[in-house]
Amino acid sequence: MAELKNNGERGAERWALWNALIALLALFIVAAQPAFAQSSSGNPNVRPPAGAVNGGATAPMVVPEKGGSYDIELWTKLRQGVQGQVSIMDKKAGVLVDSSGETWRAVRNGPLPTYGAYAMAGILGLLALFFLIRGRIRIEHGKSGATIERFNYLERTGHWLLATSFIILALTGLNVLYGRYVLIPVMGKEAFASMSIVAKWLHNYVAFAFMAGLLITFVLWLRHNFPSKEDFIWLAKGGGMFSRGVHPPARKFNAGQKILFWLIMLSGISITLSGLSLMFPFDMPMFSKTFAALNMIGFDLPTQLTANEEQQLASLWHAIMALFLICVIFAHIYIGTLGMEGAFDAMGTGQVDTNWAKEHHSVWAEEELAAGKAHRPSGQPVPAE
Ligand code: HEM
C-alpha cells in the first residue's frame, strides 16, 4: 500500500515537473523567435536608408528623407569603416564609423540569444526526459540512520557563496540578454528600466562575491579533483546513473564531479576576466594578449585589436561562457535536489547517511567509517568498520 502511494506520489511529481519544463521550453522558443528577428533587422528610425549598407555602391543616389538627404555612396564608404585623413594626433578618429560594431550588434542580437535559448531549453528538456525515464535515484539500501560529515562549515559557506552569487549573476545577466523581449511585454518599459538599473548594479557588485566563492572552493577542493584510477571505471559505467543497482567506486568526488569542478573553475575564471575587461573598459586588452599567446603555439590570430574590438569580443565571450555555465549548473542543481535522494543533505546540514555514502562514494565512505567518523542522530559514535 505504502509502495503504491509512493509510486502515485512519484507519478504526480514527474507529471508536475514535465508540465513545468514544457512551459519553460515553450517560453524560450516563443521568446527566441519573433523578437530577435525584429531586433536584428534594426529600428528604421535610427538606421541608414534601405540599400545604403549593401546596395549603396551599385546605386549611388541622394535619398531625401525627413527634410535631409543621404549620399549613399559616401555613407557606404563610411559604413564600411573607410580610413579618412585627420590632423589630430589620434589617427583612429579618421574612421567615422567602426563597422565591426555592426557585426557585433548582429551577433549579439541574433544567433547569440537564439542559440543560447535553445541550449538552455535543450538541457532542461534532456533533464526532464532523464527524470521521466530514470526517476529519482534512491538510496537503494534505505537510510541507515547513521551519518558522516561530508562538507564542513567552511566548505558549505564557500559553496553557498558561489552558488547564490552565481544565481544572482545568472538572473541579472539573462535580464540583459533577454529581459527586453520577455519582461517588457509583461511589466512595461518604465518598470523594466527601473528594475534593470538595480539588476545592473547588482550584477557588477555581486561579481566580487562570485570571485571570492570561486577562490574559496578552488582552494578547498583542488586536492580532491585530480584524476584517480577509480574515475575510469566510474566513467565506463556511466557513473551508475543509467541503471539501478550499479554503484561504481568513487573517492570524495566522483569523475562526473571532477569534470564539473574543472568546468566551473575554468569557465568561472574566463567569465571573471572578460567581465573585468567589460567593467574597466580599455584597461584590459584581454583578447590581444590571449591571441598573441595562442599565436605562439601555431595559431594565426589578429593581435592589433582596437579598443572597441576588445570590448565587442569580451561582451560576446562573457555571454557565451555564462550561457554555457548556466546549462552546466542546471544539471548540477537537478542532481543535487530532485535527481538524487540524500544528495542535498551534503550541502544542507553537511551530514550524509552512511548508506548514501557507501553507494555513491564507496572509497571515501570506507575511509571515514574505518576512522570511526560515523555517528547516530543522538551523537553516539558508530564503532569503526
Ligand atoms: C540551488 C543551487 C545548488 C544546489 C542545490 C547545489 C547542491 C550541491 C550539492 C548537494 C553538492 C554536494 C554533492 C556531493 O555531496 O557529492 C554540491 C557540490 C558542488 N557545487 Fe553545488 N549546488 C547548487 C549550486 C551551485 C552553483 C551555482 C555552483 C557553481 C557555480 C555550484 C558548485 C558546486 C561545486 C564545485 C561542488 C563540488 C563538486 C560537486 O559535488 O559536484 N553549486 N552542490
Automatic annotation (TrEMBL):
The chain crosses the membrane at residues 115-133, 160-181, 201-222, 259-280, 316-335. It comes from Candidatus Filomicrobium marinum. One of its GO terms (biological process) is formate oxidation. It holds the Pfam family Ni_hydr_CYTB. It comes from the Bacteria. Its cofactor is heme. Belongs to the formate dehydrogenase gamma subunit family. This is Putative Formate dehydrogenase, gamma subunit.
